[in-house]
Amino acid sequence: MARAGLTADRVTVAGAELADEVGLEHVTMSAVARRLGVKDASLYVHVRGLEDLRGRIALLAADEKTIRIAEATAGRAGKDALVAFADAWRAYAHDHPGRYTATQVPTRIDPDLAARAPGPRRAVELTYSMLRAYALAEPDLTDAVRLVRSTLHGFVSLEAAGGFAHARPAETSWGRCLDALHALLERWPAPREGESS
């Protein structure tokens, strides 16, 4: 019998909180059960197992990060939107390191659950929308989306891993990277020979 008040959402939030505290790789069903004060078996009424829980954490994080980015970029365009988008992305990664990791780790997510989760789809829409001011057409727009995501993820991942040991403050480099990204987006290179734009 399921413990009163225990739901899939509560289990997911408990797992997400634990991931932020100890790292996603240390989240186990037993650790989540201890956090909730229940026996391990009680969790399986609400989630199918660890992979399902990690998928749910990833979807929760995608929703939260997307909401934060949407709020930050509302009414902004061009470089102003790019900086707001990037700063919100980085702040979420700093504030919720375990949840952020869950969004980047490949895991099988229940297709029905994923179809009902607006975060991942909305994240793509927000990224394309933010880049609209740069007047890029396909396939350049998709390439630009990939560049932005790679740059932001690469920076915050290296930062989280302690990869910026240089005396120059990471905050200064972050600002300069965004300046460079904006300049590149404004002067997007022509297609390579033999490619169509």
Your description of this structure?
With 197 residues, this protein is mainly alpha-helical. It has a single domain, classed as Tetracycline Repressor, domain 2 (Orthogonal Bundle), CATH 1.10.357. 69% of the residues lie in helices and 0% in strands. The longest helix is centred in the N-terminal third of the chain and has 24 residues, at 50-73. The chain starts with 7 loop residues before the first helix and ends in an 11-residue tail after the last helix.
List the helices and strands and how they pair.
Layout: H1 8-22, H2 29-36, H3 40-43, H4 50-73, H5 78-95, H6 97-104, H7 111-116, H8 118-131, H9 140-160, H10 170-186
Identify the notable features of this structure and list them briefly.
single chain; 197 residues; mainly alpha; Tetracycline Repressor, domain 2; 10 helices; 0% strand
The run of helices and strands is: HHHHHHHHHH
* Overall geometric form: elongated
Structural class: mainly alpha
* CATH architect. name: Orthogonal Bundle
Quaternary structure state of the chains depicted: single chain
Describe the biggest sheet? Answer: none
Provide mean pLDDT, rounded. 93
How much helix is in the residues? 55-70%
What is the level 1 CATH name?
Answer: Mainly Alpha
In short:
The protein has a single domain, classed as Tetracycline Repressor, domain 2 (Orthogonal Bundle). The chain has ten helices and no strands. The protein has 197 residues and is mainly α.
